[in-house]
Amino acid sequence: MHLDVLDLRNFYYRTQLGRVAQKAVRDQVVALWPPAKGQTVAGFGFAAPLLRPYLAEARRVIGLMPGPQGVMPWPAGMENVSVLCEETQWPLETGMVDRLVLLHGLETSENPTALLDECWRVLGPGGRALFIVPNRSGLWSRSDRTPFGFGRPYSMSQLDGQLRRHSFAAERQQSALFAPPSSRRFWLRTAPMWERFGHRVSSVLAGGVLLLEVSKQVHAPQRPGLATAVKRPLKVLDALPKPAAEPA
């Protein structure tokens, strides 16, 4: 089930741990997708903390928030771009999104199959999606003091396999949140150091969240031709005598 939007807002905007998590994940998103002009950028779940860098350059930014979670106006002090929507029916035209990011969307979904179909539908040619989920091997998925402790945590192979079954091709992968999910001053103060260290030794130290960038696979349609069965084959060999065994 989805978390409540007020709990998510309070964590990311009103706690020190939430602001540390927001910066760590957002830095990785921007590293993968630098802001570019003319793009349509959408987020589903509670992706608002990650979308702010794109407000200035993108053609449009859309924050999709599912009904069971609830919606809040965002960004503060600016024209609202957040929209309340059905989890599997988004008010977006097919193929209109260039960049799509999901945060607290997939792991809490009650119908992930239909949700991924909707993600595939709204992505345009050359579009990319970024799925951010709790790492089942990390510390953050084991604590319910943060939003990453709710829903279904994933391993990278599990996430990749589920997305491939819905015609997404993995492009790049990354991790974030290498510091423990603690509000103690030491861990909050040293969190940037742990992020830098974790990215250097990510094969040893598990991050709290996984980021997987995927592209939309479109299968080529089958064209008529040699692969099509001939319904009325020419019987050009019917007049030839049938071979018979020669006498010994």
Structural class determined from secondary elements: alpha/beta
What is the helix/strand order? HHEHEEEHEHEHHE
SS summary, helix count: 7
> Roughly how much helix do the residues carry, as a percent range?
25-40%
End-to-end separation in angstroms reads: 83 Å
Strand order of the largest sheet: 3-2-1-4-5-7-6
Biggest pleated sheet: 7 strands, mixed
Report mean pLDDT, rounded to a whole number: 90
Strand content: 15-25%
Low-pLDDT residue spans: none
| Estimated radius of gyration | 25 Å
- Shape assignment: globular
Count of strand segments: 7
Can you walk through the features of this model?
Strands 3-2-1-4-5-7-6 form a 7-stranded mixed β-sheet, sandwiched between helices. The protein is built from 7 helices and 7 strands, in the order H-H-E-H-E-E-E-H-E-H-E-H-H-E. Strand 4, helix 4 (112-122) and strand 5 (123-134) form a beta-alpha-beta unit. The chain is α/β, with parallel strands linked by helices and 248 residues long.
How do the helices and strands line up, and which of them pair or pack?
Layout: H1 5-14, H2 16-32, E1 40-45, H3 48-51, E2 60-66, E3 82-85, E4 97-103, H4 112-122, E5 123-134, H5 156-164, E6 168-176, H6 185-189, H7 191-200, E7 209-216
Parallel strand pairs: 1-2, 1-4, 2-3, 4-5
Antiparallel strand pairs: 5-7, 6-7
Helix pairs in contact: 1-2
